[in-house]
Design a protein that fits this description.
single chain, alpha/beta, eight-stranded parallel barrel, two-stranded antiparallel ribbon, 12 helices, globular, PLC-like_Pdiesterase_TIM-brl
Length: 331
């Protein structure tokens, strides 16, 4: 990772989440001065069991500058790195995490996908990040909306503060990914040193509820292709907001995201994107010629009206399940 990227992680939390990867000034056959960072979505999850230490470590070994993972809380107050609220899809266990103890329960469960792994705790993940060889890695914590914000952030705070030098070596590298505005006030109050990023697929909801309080925006790729997404991308650039895009596993989508100039690409295929990024650095013109101006019309999912509809539907579902959306109020 370049010195520019490393130094950006030490900036005040009002600064963009991260700088992209620096390269020499381009000529007509080379890439722009920056290309998006590579963040492993649940680690290198195309190859290894998602949200496990081996998946995180594999992404870092590939060369990823960041990792994204999800959190849930067990019945005995252990924060776990896991995507679903229930265990069945990816492990040999069953039941809801919130209803099960970690000690004497979830700790014995293993992933269905080989190599079979235990579900890592947040503490274990922070321990991994604090290893000297991993102290350049950014970690995006996807705070699922079914969590209780107060309970979650108090547990995260306690875990981080186990490290004497957390304020300089750990906290600047952690990002709270938030789906619901009910997380904004507790995160600001309990974890003021951690930066925040909206996660979702609705640019209009991002602007209405999260714009003034989040340093970055982690958006579904398809919602950034159409007319609303284009306007949002331009707004982020003008305001100096970081723009992250997920989950980008298709080569053409990776190329498009690089053309947009996003700050980071979240992908299950970290090795594939890093290989592509090098290709783009070596011959920008040849690689970008693989996609054309017709790309936005290549899938119904990229249609502006379709993306707008799904964004509204998802926001409605979130508000129905986890409470109405209200802007964060300042005292």
């Amino acid at each position: 990772m370049s010195d520019t990227v490393i130094s950006s992680l030490s900036q005040e939390k009002q600064q963009p989440l991260d700088a992209a990867v620096d390269h020499p000034a381009p000529d007509k056959h080379s890439s722009p001065a920056v290309l998006p960072l590579c963040w492993g979505h649940r680690g290198a999850s195309a190859t290894f069991p998602e949200n496990t230490l081996c998946s995180f470590e594999a992404a870092i070994k590939d060369g990823a500058e960041g990792i994204e993972s999800d959190v849930h809380i067990s019945s005995d107050d252990v924060v776990l790195m896991f995507h679903d609220p229930s265990l069945e899809r990816t492990t040999d266990g069953d039941g809801k995490i919130a209803c099960l103890p970690y000690l004497g329960g979830i700790d014995a469960i293993r992933t269905l996908k080989a190599p079979h792994q235990k579900i890592p705790t947040f503490d274990e993940t922070m321990d991994m990040l604090m290893l000297k060889e991993n102290q350049h890695v950014v970690f995006n914590i996807d705070c699922k909306p079914n969590n209780d914000p107060e309970r979650l952030f108090k547990l995260i705070k306690a875990s981080i503060e186990r490290f004497e030098d957390h304020s300089s070596l750990l906290s600047p590298r952690l990002i709270l990914g938030l789906w619901h505005p009910k997380f904004l006030e507790p995160s600001t109050r309990l974890l003021p040193s951690l930066r925040k990023a909206y996660i979702g697929n609705s640019p209009s909801m991002a602007k209405k509820y999260f714009w003034d309080t989040c340093e970055g925006f982690s958006m579904k790729f398809s919602c950034l292709v159409g007319w609303e997404g284009l306007a949002f991308r331009e707004d982020c650039k003008r305001a100096g907001k970081s723009l992250l895009v997920w989950t980008v596993n298709d080569r053409q989508e990776m190329i498009e995201a690089c053309k947009w100039g996003v700050d980071a690409i979240l992908t299950d295929k970290t090795a594939d994107y890093l290989t592509l990024r090098q290709e783009m650095k070596d011959d920008w013109s040849a690689v970008t010629a693989e996609t054309s101006a017709l790309f936005p019309y290549s899938s119904i999912h990229y249609n502006g009206l379709v993306s707008w509809f799904w964004g509204k539907l998802d926001s409605y579902s979130l508000s129905r399940s986890w409470g109405p959306f209200h802007p964060m109020t300042t005292q």
